[in-house]
Write a structure and sequence with these properties.
Length: 309
Amino acid sequence: MAWAKFFRRPGGNLGKSYQPGSMLSLNSCFLNSAVQVLWHLDIFRRSLRQLPGHFCLGESCIFCALKGIFSQFQHSRERALPSDNLRVALAEAFKDEHRFQLGFMDDAAECFEIILQRIHMHIVPEEENACTSKSCITHQKFAMSIYEQVVCHSCGATSDPLPFTELVHYVSTTALCQQMQRRRGGADSFGELLQAASTMGDYRNCPNSCGQKIKIRRVLMNCPEIVIIGLIWDSEQSDQTQDVIHSLGPLLNLSTLFSRVTDEHAKKGELMLVGMICFSSRHYCALAFHTKSSKWVFFDDATVKEVRK
Ligand SMILES: [Zn+2]
Ligand SMILES: [Zn+2]
Ligand SMILES: [Zn+2]
């Protein structure tokens, strides 16, 4: 089972009435789920619509294919829409790597991340490192600018900060469950649990070699509007599911997810859970929060259902 969770800032109400499900070729549930969650992220949908242009790749243009599906979602009255164009563009773009090929199942979280990476490439193809383009949805809205550092409490030595960018914050479910068991009865927030799980066992040597083993510190430097948490199911034990479900929280405070947060907005900001992609029995489905109706909607390829409490 694999889940990706999506958080966004509260506010914004651009929804329309329920959008159609996606119906398409064999084994495309991973793509359908990713597309439904992207469509329901108001910030993403609005930003994509407002983008003036892009560097087009024709047949294998993931950007055009995604815009095409979104336009159909907006205007069509059909109950389900084909997402074949995006499936074909994805297969064409990753032909050489033998990934996302037609008829084959693939990973929804990877697919989601790749769509975001491609959007960046279609907007600022020349920028490979730290992307600062104001029009790049991927880096402006989703990316987390982080640095890792080791600070020795014993001798005071600090390592050089190692900066990197993350689109998906991956956490092992085994580590998450271990942290939960350690805190039975404790009232740790979902963010605190995620931080403890993602740094669990990650001890480094003191940069000044004083002999201390020091826990890694991760510092967030920006304020992403949408945060994606990827839960990695790295255990064969199926009894993790209950614990993982119990650990989930509807709100995420960025300052609890990292050792330190430097951006003032990020310090105060609270993100709301708005989407989830689930994997079970070799099949993906998605849950997304529909802003306009304030309801959760369940998507399983062509099936669309309102979630009732
Ligand atoms: Zn294009
Ligand atoms: Zn970018
Ligand atoms: Zn030291």
